């Protein structure tokens, strides 16, 4: 049998750093962390994505791709696990150094208002993915091309990824970013998000131990 040739890496359009600024951050435990915030020129989707650098990251830094979730990150919604995952990532980065990429991809890329519409469908019995499909979207509409561009612009092409989502690794590697390993995020169940966590594990193979969702 002939060996299977892996697909060629996607050619990334070049992005450049637009500006950097110091950003002191208050963590969930009340302590303070220091970050360097980056903005960019030339991102593929022209959105205002932001990168935060903590400490002096090593040659294979810890990296978190965090998609914006206004309801979870800002208002503390219990319908998802986004807020706790963001706080976990900030804590780890402040302790170990690394990069947090805050990506403006609300609702797995469908936008805030469509996410609210999806929530309404979930209240009628649809799971989080079927609701998106009913609204004419894909299971997950996120494209991590801008994330790969941001990493390249900051000189990061080999990293450890903080995620339970295998698609993040797949997309980054397809674009030529080497992922040396994945560190799983915590599981943050509550009475409102158990169905959401189960759907992520069963429908898009998030590496969530279902037993961890039992309170």
Number of strands: 7
CATH architecture of the largest domain: 3-Layer(aba) Sandwich
Instruction: State the helix count.
Output: 8
Low-confidence stretches: 1-6
Query: Termini separation (Å)?
Result: 49 Å
State the CATH class of the largest domain. Answer: Alpha Beta
The radius of gyration computed from the alpha-carbon positions, rounded to a whole number of angstroms, is: 17 Å
Could you spell the SSE succession in H and E letters? EEEEHHEHHHHEHEH
The CATH homologous superfamily of the largest domain is called: GTP cyclohydrolase II
Fraction in helix: 25-40%
Q: What is the CATH topology assignment of the largest domain?
A: Rossmann fold
Bulk shape: globular
**Which range does the strand content fall in?**
15-25%
Give me a quick take on this structure.
Keywords: GTP-binding, Hydrolase, Metal-binding, Nucleotide-binding, Riboflavin biosynthesis, Zinc. With 215 residues, this protein is an alpha/beta fold.
